[in-house]
Protein: 4-hydroxy-3-methylbut-2-en-1-yl diphosphate synthase (flavodoxin)
Amino acid sequence: MSYVPSRRRTHQVQIDHLTVGSDAPVVVQSMTNTDTADAAGTARQVKELSDAGSEMVRITVNTPEAAAKVAEIRSRLDDMGCNTPLVGDFHFNGERLLQEFPDCARALSKYRINPGNVGKGAKGDEKFAYMIRTAAEYGKAVRIGVNWGSLDQSLAKRMMDANQASATPKPPEEVMKEALIVSALESAQKAVDLGLPEDKIILSCKVSAVQDLIQVYRDLGARCAYPLHLGLTEAGMGSKGIVASTAALAVLLQEGIGDTVRISLTPEPGSPRTQEVVVAQEILQTMGLRSFTPMVTACPGCGRTTSTVFQELARDIQHYLREKMSVWRHQYPGVESLNVAVMGCVVNGPGESKLADIGISLPGTGETPVAPVYVDGERKVTLKGDNMAAEFLAIVQEYVETHYGEGGRKRAAPRLIPIRPV
Structure:
């Protein structure tokens, strides 16, 4: 049995049908980039993110126009058969919007509150208190999300002044990281004092540098029993954002830290918003923490594989499997654990294909133009000609239909993940 990291023990938070924390699966979250006042467009994007595998979706609630449409968005999603919980992202004026639009307060499943953006002094305390009491009244969960770029300046100044007066002052960047943690913990305690149960609170402390994020979450995780939301804020675009997020989150997840995740990618112009969901899923799945979609093993190619046939088939089968999952996950429980190999030559092709549930070993340069297909380790058929791709996809479809779901032989077994104390 492969090694599975033990998870940090936390309070468990119920958000509609989702359980967050301890031995519950790490939850994938995403966020819309539509104008929330556009109810149809926002509901459509939430549905797209949900179909891609996002288990919670955060929406911006920043204006009266946006708050007035939240209940309609929830209704539209319900009509589409989408029960994905909505998280309201509040900054600056959240207490006013919750007060003026009680339907918004009820329709959201969780509130995200940034203590650095609620307000200053006694007025800020009153705003924070109103939002927390509203969450408690409606039984909503709250993520207290502290961010490096919007840290409570009065707290930062207080801690900087205390550090300056110390006999052994720490570097300013260390004080700032400590201020992030203190802000989250003090805000959580205020919420509890105001009547919000501990099992309704999730914390996050987001920064944009990998090593800082790892240090902050290690310290935060050691000092509380709240579930933690992971994400490298402002991760960036393309490979930079993917690599940075993976580098940070993989370390923390390997140490059992993290209960919900979001990959904050800047989308390429015209690219789908769902890419951040795919990256989050692939991080969790390649680490063996969860399974979301069948995995494709494919070789990188070399001088033996000058043809692009195996590259095209690997691309096509990967797209095919992910597109099918919106239906398959309901019809064929366990199919997410399917492993498919698409190999490009005789060197590793037959061996990798035999190890997969289904594998094809395509001919390399100078090899006989045939492609043996292996099913559960046994050679089933040899394909040749121009129709190999379609024939192989048909074999995959047949395998799924006969091996998963009702009457199938490969129902997924629940994975028991050990829990370690905080």
User: Anything to note?
Assistant: The mean pLDDT is 94.
